[in-house]
Amino acid sequence: MLKIPFLKTLPHFLLFTALFFCIPFSYAQHAHKIDSLGKKLNEALHDTVRVKVLLNLSGETLNQGDPKKALEWAQKSLHLAERNNFQRALGGIYNAMATAYVTMSDYPKGMECHQKALAIRLARNDKKGIAGSYNNIGIIYFNLSDFPKTLEYFQKSLKMQEELKNNYLIAATIGNIAVVYEQLHDDSLSMVFQQKSFDMHKVMNNRSDMVSSLNNLGTLYRKKKQLNKALDMHNQALKIALELDEKDKMKLTYGNVGTLYLAMNKPKEALEMFLKAKEFTEENDDKKDRSTLYSLMAQAFLKLGKPNDAVTYFNQALELAKSAGNLNEQKEAAQGLYEINKSKGDYKTAVTFLEIARQLNDSIFNSSKNESLNSLKTQFALDRQEVQLQSKAEEELKKQEEEKARQRIIIYVALCVLILVLVFSYFLLQRFRITRKQNRIIESQKILVEEKNKEITDSIMYAKRLQQAITPTVELVKQTFPGSFIYFQPKDIIAGDFYWMERKGNDVYIAAADCTGHGVPGAMVSVVCCNALNRALKEFDLSHTGPLLDKTRDLVLETFAKSGEEIKDGMDISLLRFIDYDQTASLLSLEWSGANNSFWYIEGNEFKTIKCDKQSIGKTDNPMPFHSHMLSLPKTSSVYLYTDGFADQFGGPKGKKFKYKQLEELLLRINYLPGPEQVTIIEHSFETWKGGLEQVDDVCIIGITLS
User: Fold this and answer.
1) Does domain 298-429 sit in CATH 3.90.1200?
2) In whole angstroms, what is the distance from residue 339 CA to residue 331 CA?
3) Do 669 and 632 form a contact (C-beta atoms < 8 A)?
């Protein structure tokens, strides 16, 4: 009886390598996308756009089954990105190049590119990209059958995905780990991980990934000889694959069902499944898959009593396995041809294939023998280390004897020193008594200072509660704008920065403000400015943002004028009005005005700025009316209000300011994430940049995703 090889399901190898494009449903769809991208490439005016288009072309070409062309596109993108110092794109480009190399089984170059991508992502603290690189490096180790290393990198990826709370990629990575345990023959542990992965995909209704998990579970049940349970898993997978019309999943499932039917001694049903899988396998021209499938078909024909058909497919499997360099599949095909020719009485041909099978077995054995030789070399190195350690131990013992002799000399010297110390101790004791008396005085003064400090701190904490009472809660802001976040980091307990939100009819006003100073003085100014802003809106019944700021300035100056002294304190502010605000509207009308703080928004992945008026709310030479800027934004846009504290923070490797340009790039990179994830990244970036330096000013950033 011929040995039946399993047609295993593939792990989720494209999870992180396809970061810039989606997994397709048809080659025609790819051809259309490639034509469209080619047109965009010709029309692109800026190199940054061309880099992205070239990268997308690489992804689409790879999905169409042309890794060499995909590599060419990626290399062109790399050349252009390096020439323009476009650092943000390099991680994705090296990732795309690695994917192409791995697809062509060039694992050393694939590993080199993945390592470069990982280094770039680590430097940028790109956690999502880092997790992807860990996964992809694990995949290469999997293809090299280094399963301990595979597990190490998959587990690194899983840990980071759990930090990011990305349930989809957590489930996918758990599924990958399950496949590794299956390769390590720990089927029970593999089934636990595979079931967990399936359950998570089911909750998220990720039907395509449910197909992979069900196929893997079916394979595990088949190995445990629970054939009916295995068939149930594969049938569930096949039903979903047919509904989704995903060719790769259908091919894989048909192959698994056919292999199971062979194990159940149902060659007719098995052949039907293999023929269906054959249609999809030949479309992709995957020689490794085709050689495995043809060997299985040959075994089915053999069980059906059709040796001539079996010979045909074994011969094809042998040639394909040679092209793919797959020694095990070559051996299986040669062994099958030997058995068939032997049963026919064609001993000459049978001997030829038997010799081929033996040579292939020797090649496989020599590979294993080389591994054993490496193990022996390692043991020899360890033995040599043991001899060296023993020699070092004898030298250490000799040194210890010499050290004891030196210690005796030291003891004698120490006794002499001790006598001198006793002489001086009396004089030191007298000095100690005087010092202790002085310390008592200092201690009493310290207690008095601490009491005063506590009183001051308590007063400041109460002032903080009063300041919080005049500002909206984060929860209230999120009720109005579900896609919002607020990063508010005062330099001291109370702040000169504040954020403000009010409703007037169907309009919603929101602002980020920076008053002169920080701490107690800044907080006092913020109360005056916040009160003036409320009065301008409610008492004077103003609506447009420009007149609102004009009136606020008048009220602030009026308040400070009562002191009889010239006070130059005031406020910088970014004020945004949502006109007839409706969360369900597809297009939102906004009005904005700014005093020394500009307005940022992101539309269609493009960062845009509206410049502010270069004057503050307060004492100003030649004051001018504030401008009101009207704009309409689709729901996919994001808007940002901010003060200058983040950009002015010193830090980084050279102790310089963070600056607005770097802050703009950070917001553009993370704007698509949910509010809680954006604020986490912003906080981490600020703390990382600041490092051990002191915070220089209050920080306030408000972000609102309109969807």
Assistant:
1) no
2) 12
3) no
Burial of 534 per CB tally in 10 Å (0-12, 13-18, 19+): middle
Q: What is the DSSP letter of 591?
A: E
Contacts of 208 (CB under 8 A, 6+ apart): 23, 240, 244, 246, 249
User: Residue 701 forms beta bridges with which residues?
Assistant: 487, 642
Report how far Cα 571 is from the mean position of its chain's Cα atoms.
Answer: 39
Q: What angle do CA 433, 437, 439 make, to 5 degrees?
A: 115
User: By C-alpha distance, which of 597, 578, 570 is closest to 510?
Assistant: 578
Place of tokens 């074994």: 314
Domain parsing of the chain, residue ranges: 210-285, 298-429, 471-705
CB–CB of 619/557 below 8 Å?
yes
Q: Using an 8 Å Cβ cutoff, are 215 and 252 in contact?
A: yes
Structure tokens at 110: 């694939």
DSSP 656: E
Same fold? 210-285, 471-705 = no
Place of tokens 């970036």: 685
What pLDDT, on a 0 to 100 scale, did the predictor assign at position 424? 72
C-alpha span between 275 and 264 (Å, rounded): 18
What is the torsional sign of CA 202, 208, 211, 213?
negative
Q: Compute the distance between CA of residue 556 and CA of residue 360 in angstroms, rounded to an integer.
A: 90
pLDDT for residue 563: 64
Please give the average pLDDT of every successive group of 10 residues along the chain, which has 707 residues. Answer: 29 27 33 66 72 82 81 85 84 89 86 90 89 91 86 91 90 90 86 91 90 90 89 90 85 89 90 84 70 86 87 83 74 82 80 79 56 37 36 54 75 76 73 75 69 64 68 89 92 88 94 84 85 92 94 90 73 95 88 96 92 92 93 92 95 93 93 91 94 92 89
For 210-285, CATH gives: 1.25.40.10
Q: Which two tokens stand for residue 183?
A: 């390769």
Mind listing the pLDDT tens digit for each residue in 360-417? Answer: 777 655 544 444 334 333 333 333 333 343 444 356 456 656 777 777 787 777 777 7
Instruction: State the alpha helices, DSSP H only, in 84-206.
Output: 87-103, 107-123, 127-143, 147-164, 167-183, 187-204
> Given this model, what pLDDT does residue 75 score?
86
pTM for the full model? 0.45
Shortest CA distance to 436 belongs to which of 426, 447, 424, 428? 428
Question: CATH fold of 471-705, please?
Answer: Phosphatase 2c; domain 1 (3.60.40)
- Side-chain-side CA neighbours of residue 516 (13 Å): 12
- Calpha distance 276→281 (Å, rounded): 9
Which residues, 6 or more positions from 380, have their beta carbon under 8 angstroms from its beta carbon?
none
Bridge partners (DSSP) listed for residue 498? 513
Phi, psi at 615, each rounded to 5°? -155, 155
User: How far is residue 47's CA from residue 43's CA, in Å, rounded to a whole number?
Assistant: 11
CA 407 to chain centre: 58
